[in-house]
Amino acid sequence: MIRVENLHKHFGGFRACDGASIEIAEGSITGLIGPNGAGKSTLFNVIAGVLPPTAGTVYMGGEDITGLPPHELFHKGLLRTFQIAHEFASMTVRENLMMVPGGQSGETLWNTWFRRGQIATEEAALRRKADEVLQFLTIDHLADEKAGNLSGGQKKLLELGRTMMVDAKVVFLDEVGAGVNRTLLRTIGDAILRLNKERGYTFCLIEHDMDFIARLCDPVICMAEGKVLAVGKAQEIMQDDRVIEAYLGTGLKSRTKAEAPAG
Q: Residue 22 falls within a domain, yes or no?
């Protein structure tokens, strides 16, 4: 579904992405791991149109989407969430979801004067869909709560809910588990798995929690210094010497091996 070829993103002399190439298969949950500064979020930002690439190409379903702005990619079904949730704090959880779909009749002044019935019908349909999404995510009890009052984990669920308000095809999740307690993290993981299996969502997620990655993701891609270091199943990646060295450094890797029990 997504293919990235020889992607570069430079900031002056710093090469945040340095020839990275990845593939995200349709219907997969792909994990993207690596130490801080590996280029993971930059890669996400280039794919999602937040940043233009210095060089390289991004394809979606065979179509060259390199450099397309986020709003165009949104309409193609490519969505990206951020490590820090971007909710409308003063609006309710339900209203946050109802804001997502574009092209609503109530967005034009003409329609607010002359097509009030059409607007009311659309809003009723959006409200029903929002309530279905909240029930799916098991946060329907928070429908009328101000979004700014939610916990970090609940805001991550709300971000996931936004992707369900449109016809998302592939969703990029940036550190969905950051600052989330274990109970809510399991709820988020359950929702991702259900969306993948029941609704055919394709996911790619950046995450540092390797238990979470191992539960959800196949394959797992490891980046380091702007390049793809290794690709494979979670257990293979976690035992790969290159990955261990990227996370721990050569000295710590050697000490870890020396301290490992024999046999």
A: yes
Instruction: Identify whether residues 24 and 38 lie together within a single domain.
Output: yes
Residues 98 and 192 in one domain: no
Would you call the peptide bond into 53 cis, given omega within 30 degrees of 0 as the criterion? no
pLDDT < 70: residue spans in the chain = 83-85, 102-119, 249-263
Q: What is the per-residue pLDDT for 251?
A: 43
CATH of the domain at 209: 3.40.50.300
pLDDT tens digits, residue range 97-148? 998 876 555 555 545 544 566 667 888 899 999 999 999 999 999 999 999 9
Domain span holding position 95: 88-149
Distance CA 252, CA 206 (A): 24
Q: What share of the chain is helix, strand, coil (3-state, %, to 5)?
A: 45, 25, 30
